[in-house]
Every structure is written in structure tokens, then in C-alpha cells.
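Purpose: get a first structural picture of the assembly so the mutagenesis plan has something to point at.
Setup: two entries, given in the order below. No constraints added.
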Amino acid sequence: MKKKFFIGLIFVMIFFTAGGLYLTNSFNQITGILHNIITLQKMEIQKRTLLNKIETVQTDLLVKDSPHAININVFIQHVQQMEHEVQVCTTCHHAPEITTRIESLEEDIKKYQHKLSRVYTLKADRQRLLQELDNAFAAGNQLADKVESIIAASSLTMSDEVSIANYSIADAKKILILLVTIGPFLFLLISFFFVKRFTHSLSVLTEATGKIKSGKLQFRIEEKLQDEFGQLASSFNEMSASLQEQCDLLQETERLAVVGELAAGMAHEIKNPLAGIKVSMEVLSHDLDLEQEDKEVFLQVINEIDRINALLKSLLNYARPPKPQSVFFDVHQVLDATIKSAQYSLKNPPEEDRKDIEFVRDFSPEVQGIVADPGQLQQVFLNLLLNSGDAIAEQGTITIRTRKISNETIEITFSDTGKGIDSAELDQIFKPFFTTKSHGTGLGLAICRRLIQQHSGGTITAANNPEGAGVTFTITLPVEPVNEVIAR
Amino acid sequence: MVNRYSHSAATLILAALLCLVVIGCRDQRTSTSEVTDSPASQTLKIGIVPEKSIFRQKERYAPFAEYLSQKTGLKVELLSLLSYENIIDSIQTRDLDAAFLGSFTGALVLVKLEAQPLVRPQHFDGSSTYHGLIFTRKDSGINTVQDMKGKRFALVDKATTAGWLLPLHYFKEHRIDDPSAWFAEIYFTGTHEDAILDVLDKRADIGAAKNTVFYGMAEKNPRIINELTILTASPPVPSNTLFICQDIEQKTKEILRETLLAMHRNEEGRKALHDLGAAKFIATAEQDFQPVFQYAEEIGLDFALYENESPSVNTPSDR
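Result (C-alpha cells, whole complex):
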């Protein structure tokens, strides 16, 4: 938006600057032409003055022998004025052709002067005197003709200059009208465009804020807003998602608190009586002379008591998991040990439930030691491996893969080739008491997530394998938790 | 009572007289101051003869006039003169205060008007004289006075040594008693320059002019040396001299003389002198004109009676 606003502003500025520059240039050009015209006008006046002086001298010459003849010194003054005028003409800036003609004019004036001098100083017979007078007068007329022709040529140049000036003025006028009329419209158009975009984006954002305010945290701005408003909308959506996540987390925390209280209470109220019951049952089954069938009933009761104890322990683990005791260790070693345990556990079932499972290790050499609680992680890994084993019907593969995502994070995946999880249930599997198993407690994965989350932002996710059957659980862990006391 | 009034009246009259005397003295003092302290108000009219074209002459003398005005505080005004009559009349009627005159006119003025010669130019070659020349075209076939018969003669003016006195001497020397009959045409060009150009351009067959103008023009126009030949020359006479009217204040004359004699000592003066074709001005006295008087005497020309004794030529009425 800011960029476009500046582009628009620059465009308007360029438009007006270009127009202004063109006008300034035109005005300079016109001023130059007008200056030329004024100069030409001055030159024409100068030439006309020269013509006038020539005519004055010619008149002096004609009345020379009449009673109206002027004093010789006045006549000389007239001739000098004529010469002065032509000298002034030569100082003006003319076209080369005119300059040449004016220079030749200077020569002609000198010749004319000489002839005039002869007329005034000569004492001879009438015929010779008339001849000299005619010569001088003819020279004067010729000079006047020449000056007139130069005036005509200059007038032509001036006429051309006037035409050019008129054209330039007309052009400048057009540009000026264009600037005055189109300019404001253009400015308004661009302003309207920006204001419309601005207000529309603002109204979309305001509406979204209203939705969030009313509690619709799942609301997202779907419309693609432009420029900075687009970024703002994206941030807004992220904020909404974060809010929703935080809200869910808060709910989860509240739920955990409730479960914790419940588990603690149950543990306190149930565990001790159960221990008494269990001991009593063991004493009774041992001391009483019971039939084998009755003894099995006692054993079943004791097993159920153990199961209740295990459930209580799981509940306590989930609600109040122990704080991780972080140390630096080789994650691959822990994984190896866990895989061996899982293999052992999976080999022990009765003959009819035994499965053919292959464990594949794909450990990256880039993954070295990490700082975490190896016990808790081993619990998580074992849970996942056993779950994977449960998911495989008869034969399958469990692949354990490690890789370094960044300098700060590693990733561990557990992929099986089992039956997979229904897509609708994938979101539920980490919730407590959710289970797809007939005899499961629904706390295994919930505890796994709690333990992983305790490791400074560790995550655990599950997804069906895209290439076929099976699920992949992905754990990300920080290599070295921040502000963690490390026992190396 | 009457005595008291009489006493008062007498006192008033005396006071009034005293005031008048004071005012009178003050006025007198003011007017004297104006005369002596403001020489710029005095105009010095200097006449110049058409040695060359009248316009060229004005141009040549303009820096001289400006220099003189600047140095003396006088308002120098140049006036062009067309003929000797013009000069005599102008000096007589005091239309001119001074004039640069050729040797002939100078001698005439000395005799008729008792004007005083002040200075004359000394040329770059060190000479301060000139002489007259009679010349013709090399291809004219004119070598002797006999060859001149029926030809056209271009003179300068009846007031010039070179352009009139020399030809008169030549005619007398060769026993031409009636020049108008001997020549097809005798006319006066008015300037030395035109006399030379007329012969060069075949408007006349024979011409007379002063050597300074002749050789000065030849420097710019080689045709003059290549195409013209000199038949005879006059003795040297003083170059154009500045004459001043006798009634001009002695102090002014002295200032003028000193200014002009010192003109070559500064740059501005040298520039003005250069335009006149002179290296400096030298003092000139009446006796410097002796060669002119002697030359005129040889043909029996008396300057005092000059107008009456002027031989008639077929020229139009002089202006």
C-alpha cells in the first residue's frame, strides 16, 4: 500500500513536474524568441533610422545649391550620424547573410561619403559638377535601396520568429490547459483509488475484529486484502489461531487440573484400601484351602486390583507428570534400548498372538546428543513402539528415523505399516481417555504428549502415511532446552 | 523733532547705500570668478581645411579636439572649411578663433589678417614641411608642357601652395599666359586626395597635390606609385599650421601653445597626433612662411592683392 501510494505520488509528481518543466522550457523558449523579436524590432528601427539619415543626407544634397541649403558643418554632422547608425547596426547580432550585407553597406557608405565630399569641395564646370552630383545622389539611392532590402529581409526573419513564437505560445497554452484540467482529475482519481482500497480493507479488518470480540475465535479473514492490509489480515488470522490455541490450552490445563485433583484424591482414597484388599486377598488365597477354581477367582481379583493401581498411577502420571530431569545423552542409544525392550515385549505374547515385526533404524549421523530426560523419553518411545506393534496385525515394519531439522531441533519419527487411524479420530488420539483398543485406558498417548510438551516446546503429532497403510508419529525436540540446568 | 527724523533718514540712506555697495562688490567678485575659474565655458572654434575628404578630416581632427578640450578646459569645436574665401571671411567675422591652414592660406592670413602662427606638425620622418607635386599618368604620354595642351588639369584649391601656387609657377615658368586657353579644362577638386584620384581614374589628365597626401595615399594604394609619374615639384613649405586670431587672450594662446608642444609627451596626445599623421607639434613663426612668400614673389603674386590678381580659369563661381 505504502509502495503503491508512493508510486502514485511519484506518478502525480512526475506528471506535474514534467508539465512544469515543459512549461518552463516553453516559457524560456518563448521569452528567448520574444527577446529575438524585440532585438529584431530594435534592429529594424535602427535600420529605419539609418534609412532616415540617408534620406536626410540625400535631401541635403538636393537643396545644396538652393536658398534652403544647410551649413556645411550641419551637413557633415548628418553624414556622421548616418555613419554612426550603420556602425551601430554592425554591432548587432545578425544572421551571417545580413552581417555580410551590413558590412558591404559600410563600404558603400564610405564610397557615398567620398562622393558627397567631392560634390561639396569640387569647383568645376557645370557639367562636371552635375555629373558628381548625379553620382553622389545615385550612390545615396543605391544605399537606401540596399538598406530597404535588408529591412525587408529582417522583417521576413522577424515574421518567421513571430510565427514560431505563436506556435510555441499555442503549444504551451495546450499543455497548461491539459495540466489545469486533466491534472486535478488525475489527482482525484488516484486519491479515490487509494481511499477506496484503504476504507474497504479497514472495514474488512473491523468486521473481523468484531467477530473475534463476539467469541468466534475460529473466524478467519478469507478475502485476499492487498499490500500491507494483506499482511495485517494474515497477522490477524495468525493472532486468531493463536488465541484459539491458547484458549484450547487453557481448557486443557483446566481439565488437567481437574483430573489431577481427581487422581490425587482417588489415589489417596482408593490406593490404601486397595492395598489392604490386595493383601487380604493374597493372604486368604494362600491360607485358605480352596479349590483351584476358587483360587483363580482370587488371582483374578488381585490382577484387577493391580490394574486399578496401574490406572491410578497412569492418571497421576498424566495429571501431575514428574518434572523432567534433563541430562545430555545420545538419543540413538536410548532409542536402541527402547527398541530392544519393545522387541522383547512383543515376542512374549502367547503363540497365537505372536507377530512378525521388523524394526528398521534410520538414524541420521547429524543427530548427536541432546539435553532431555532420557527416562521420560524412553517411556514415550516405548509407548509409541508398542502402539505401533499393536496396530500391526501379523507382519509389518516399524521404522524409527532421526534427522536434524535445524541446529536447535531434531525430529524422531515412528512409522508403522499397521492399520492406520481413521482420519476423524486423528485429532482425538492425544486426548485423555480416548482409545481405540478394547482394553486400553486412553491415557498412553495423552501422557506421551504431556511428557514431550514438558521438554521446552517439544511437539508430537500423528498422521496416516501418505503412501499407504500405517501411521507415523513425529516428535520434535529441542537439542538443548533454554535455561535448562544441564548435567553432562 | 525734525532733526531727529532727518538723522534717522540719513542713517537709513547710508545703510541702504552700504548694502548696495556690498551687493555690488559681491556680484563683481562672482562674475570675475566665473570668467577665470570656468574656462570650459569658453569655446575655441578651430577651422580645418579639406586636405582630404571633409568627413575624413573631421574624423582625423576629432581626437585632437578632444585632447585639447580635456587638457585646456576649453570647449574646442571643429568647423570644416571649404575654400580660402571661407577662411578669410570666417576669421574676419570671428566665426573662427583658430584654423589649421596650408602654407598658402597661412601666408594669406598673415598678410591680410595678421593672425598668429602657433604650431605645425612634424611628420614621422622628422620633416615639418611639404611640397607640391604636378603629376600625370605614366600612360598619358605627357612629358612636357607642350604635351599638356588641350588636356584636363585637376587643381586643388586657389588657397593651396601645392594645388594652386605650384601650377601657377609652372605656367609662368613655361610661359603659359592663359592657362584656360592652353588646357581643355582646369578645375578644382577641393581636396588633394581627389586631385590624385581624378588623374589615377582618368577623370583628369594632369593633377597637382601635396606630397604628404600623395605618398600617404600611395602607402594604401600602390596604383598611385605604379601608374602615376611626377612631372615637377615645388620647394618645401611649412606643413599645415595652426593659426590663432590676434585678439585671443595671450594667456589662452600660451596655454594652447604649451599644451600642443607637449602633446607628444603622453599616450593620449600621441594617439591624437598619430591620427593627424604627426609625431609632434613644433613651434612656428612668421618667418617659417618665407619660402611661400618667395615662391609667390617669383611669379609676381602679391598676397595683399591676391583676390584681384587671381588669374582667371574656366571654373564655376567660387563658393
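Residues 126-213 of chain A form the longest helix (88 residues).
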